[in-house]
Design a protein that fits this description.
The complex is a heterodimer of chains A (about 375) and B (about 260). Chain A is of the alpha/beta class and about 375 residues long. Chain A contains 17 helices and 9 strands. Chain B has a 3-stranded antiparallel sheet with strand order 2-1-3. The relative contact order of chain B is 0.17. Classes of the chains: A alpha/beta (about 375), B mainly alpha (about 260).
């Protein structure tokens, strides 16, 4: 095994051969260190890791998904990310980008998981259908569930890309006909790094890979398995429109004056207050913008079940279990109205039914009660 | 005749219980109003710059402040259910004895459906009411846990972080928010019924239910008070031995004195 890896160039050597200058390389390391929320000195650690570490074999699996995670990754603002991390370093098997096809491709997969057992990274894009014995997603004659279990068994680390692999996304929404299941619900004996979002931000994906490469262990995760470095802050708390929220300045409709002024989108359904992601800080497309900046409320795509928490443009969503168009308010108002009416009816009824007990004078009341007591003693 | 007018004045709600009630009432109102505003902020069309206004932040601050008061107050009430008098005891809240379950049925028949006119006289709450308060207690715990869990990301304090375990259980913060908000309605509905029923009981039975939560005393004709003690709905055998509240002037906690005949 050592002989095999010794012939493989380091990541840095590959970068140099691709024409990356030392200066660009160091800039990349500093940039990644910053995204990962590391100290200044950590960029040297990253540089050292990339200079000395050998290529890590990577298997990137695609199941029920739209490939938007791959697309996002390829559009990373830094060429090193796509060029080196994805193309050169590693990618041994990925259905959507590999040149090989058919039996040849499947052979490569088998090759990687047997030859590099315990060394390769397993990256999963897409959810795994469990319905109908896994028939809804079969690649190379093998169902997704079998592939996932087989590949996960020898993986050094497992990363779930995007909402599909992390929580089922749209195909996992109610009623989930194919029983689309996230990776973490299938692989129980190993930690799964959930890189959430639909798709995740390219820089976040790169950051997670660099972290795995540099520190040889998975990053610190939150209670939902997401790397803390990128998912510990709410979109709401990093939003540049936050001041409008605190000042109570809200967009009422998308065509009003407030929308033009760029007020807070809370009342038109923004999920920022319950969404954890780096959109407000790293942003998208080389830090150009993010949904809220372009006037659209956050839909909470890095949260589980975000499709079921609709409609997207409503602050108070439909209440689960009561059918479409029943919000907590409609249900509450109905029950509240019925309660008030019942109390009123009850009050009227009381005056009729309990006429005797209520009585006019205290003496009468007491005598009647006494009579009842003696009469009804059992 | 003489006998039937012999009212007994019984100290039912101790001062801590009364304080709890009113602090709780104030918190529920404050939390309800601010919670409603947080869910449905009114539209103020203003030309003011965002940095000069903070009314929504203030509404949220008041909500969080009363959240702490609500939680601390409830924790105190739980403590008092262990050390307070028998009417405040935690055992009342759970229908564990046959007598309690029988009384729940009796209350439903007599007071709710009014199919029977045989009055149920109790000094504390009746079993149905106690059981309902166990329900509101459960809702209170849920609101405290979910509220602090939702507050945790904006707080540096260790305390709210203790409750974040509920977030993954409810399938994420957004769902938790819906539940936290929907229970506001449960409190609105509870309050409607609660206030109505206190008026009802005061009006029909004349035990002074409404004033009892201010002064702590209830009034009951002597034979009824004795019957209540005999059924022992709010007096569990072992507690009854410790504090025989039915007997006047035996302990400081159960001060009773005969009321002049009406």
């Amino acid at each position: 095994m050592n002989n095999v890896t010794a012939t493989v160039p380091t990541v840095y050597e590959q970068m140099v051969s691709r024409g990356v200058s030392r200066r660009d390389f160091l800039k990349f390391c500093a940039w990644m260190g910053a995204y990962l929320g590391l100290e200044n000195q950590a960029s040297a650690q990253i540089a050292k890791a990339i200079e000395t570490k050998r290529r890590i074999p990577v298997v990137w699996l695609h199941f029920q998904e739209c490939t938007c995670c791959s697309e996002s990754f390829l559009r990373s603002s830094h060429p090193i990310v796509a060029d080196i991390l994805l193309d050169k370093i590693s990618l041994d098997y990925t259905e959507t980008l590999q040149a090989a096809a058919g039996h040849q491709a499947e052979e490569i997969l088998q090759d990687v998981i047997t030859k590099h057992k315990g060394e390769y990274l397993m990256l999963v894009e897409g959810s795994i259908p469990l319905g109908a014995d896994g028939c809804y997603c079969v690649v190379g004659g093998k169902s997704a569930i079998d592939t996932v279990k087989e590949v996960a068994a020898g993986a050094k680390a497992i990363v779930a890309w995007g909402n599909c692999a992390c929580s089922g996304c749209v195909q996992g929404a109610n009623p989930n006909p194919t029983r689309a299941t996230p990776v973490s619900a299938i692989i129980k004996d190993k930690p799964v790094v959930n890189v959430q979002g639909c798709p995740p931000i390219a820089e976040v994906m790169a950051g997670v890979l660099v972290h795995l490469l540099t520190f040889d262990r998975i990053p610190q995760l939150d209670s939902l398995g997401r790397p803390n470095a990128f998912y510990s802050k709410r979109v709401h708390d990093t939003c540049y429109r936050r001041a409008s929220y605190d000042a109570g300045l809200f967009v009422e409709t998308f065509d009003d004056e407030n929308a033009k002024k760029g007020y807070c989108l809370y009342k038109v359904g923004c999920r920022g207050p319950s969404t954890y992601n780096s959109c407000g800080t790293i942003r998208w497309n080389n830090g150009t913008s993010y949904p809220i900046q372009s006037g659209h409320p956050c839909i909470g795509c890095s949260e589980a079940n975000f499709w079921d928490n609709g409609p997207f443009y409503q602050r108070i969503p439909n209440f689960p279990g009561f059918g479409i168009e029943s919000t907590a308010d409609k249900i509450g108002l109905t029950i509240g109205g019925v309660t008030a009416a019942a109390a009123l009816t009850h009050a009227v009824l009381t005056n009729v039914r309990k006429r005797d007990e209520i009585g006019e004078g205290p003496g009468e009341n007491a005598e009647k009660a006494e009579a009842t007591k003696q009469g009804g003693e059992s | 005749m003489e006998l039937s007018h012999d009212y007994q004045r019984v100290y039912v709600w101790e001062q801590p219980v009364r304080w709890f009630h009113w602090i709780n009432a104030a918190s529920v109102v404050a939390l309800g109003v601010t919670g409603w505003l947080i869910a449905h902020p009114p539209a103020f069309m203003t030309a003011q710059e965002a940095s000069f206004g903070y009314w929504f932040g203030t509404v949220r601050f008041v909500h969080f402040l009363f959240g702490y008061i609500f939680a601390a107050n409830f924790a105190f009430r739980v403590y008092w259910s262990l050390v307070g008098n028998k009417f405040a005891n935690w055992r009342n809240f759970f229908p564990m004895t046959a007598a309690q379950i029988r009384q729940i049925w009796a209350v439903l028949k007599v007071d709710v459906f009014q199919s029977s006119n045989k009055a149920v006289h109790t000094l504390g709450h009746n079993s149905m009411a106690y059981f309902t308060y166990a329900g509101t207690g459960f809702l209170t715990v849920f609101q405290i846990v979910s509220g602090f869990a939702l507050y945790a990301p904006t707080s540096e304090s260790w305390f709210p972080q203790l409750f974040t375990w509920i977030v993954p259980l409810c399938g994420g913060e957004f769902t938790l928010r819906i539940f936290h908000y929907a229970i506001l309605w449960a409190f609105v509905i509870f309050t409607t019924i609660h206030v109505y029923l206190t008026f009802y009981h005061d009006y029909v039975e004349g035990h002074g239910v409404i004033s009892s939560i201010v002064g702590g005393w209830k009034f009951m004709e002597k034979h009824q008070a004795e019957a209540e003690q005999a059924t022992g709905i709010s007096a569990f055998p072992e507690l009854k031995e410790k504090t025989p509240a039915a007997q006047p002037t035996t302990t400081a906690k159960a001060k009773t004195k005969p009321h002049p005949a009406g």
